[in-house]
Specification:
alpha+beta; 2 domains; two-stranded antiparallel sheet; 6 helices; binds zinc ion
Length: 162
């Protein structure tokens, strides 16, 4: 099996296991406002699921002078290549991401310390699929992908060797 096939199988398993990454959103412009003992803060590097971004903006807008309200808006983030997997900064929901080279290296470190064992978790399947997507020719990534396939529940030997 090549990297693409392994990636597809891991992604399918992740999806069946309920892993549905959300589209990342950010809010235009930086702001920091203290309000009711709560600190409302965001800059454009902060990423959220759409629900949390909308809720944060809705809380912020009435607190701003009218002429500053136009400066802040919720927008979808372009997919950049990241050092790490991404979660909503407010609710922690998994966000869609693509890894860069550093990101692949740090995920490899993680899985060297915690190699697939027992039944593969759908979340790990998703993260390993992102590594294969970013570095399909990397041997260590390919080895990890193959190991992950061996740990799919109800593993079908015939499929794995195909
Ligand atoms: Zn959220």
């Amino acid at each position: 099996m090549d990297a693409r096939h392994i990636e597809t199988r891991l992604d399918r398993f992740a999806k069946e296991g309920g892993i549905v990454p959300l589209r990342p959103f950010y809010i235009w412009g930086e702001f920091r406002i203290e309000w009711n003992g709560e600190s409302l803060y965001s800059d454009e590097a902060h990423e959220y699921c759409e629900t949390c971004a909308d809720a944060l903006l809705a809380k912020l807008l009435p607190l701003l002078p009218e002429d500053q309200r136009e400066d802040h808006r919720v927008s979808a983030t372009e997919l950049h290549h990241e050092d790490t997997s991404k979660n909503c900064m407010i609710c922690g929901a998994l966000l869609d991401y693509a890894l860069n080279e550093c990101g692949v290296a740090s995920e490899l470190d993680h899985y060297r310390a915690y190699p697939p064992a027992g039944k593969l978790h759908p979340g790990d399947a998703f993260h390993i699929a992102r590594m294969l997507e970013a570095a399909p020719a990397n041997r260590a990534v390919l080895r990890l992908g193959k190991a992950a396939i061996q740990h799919l529940p109800q593993h079908d030997g015939a499929l794995a060797t195909a």
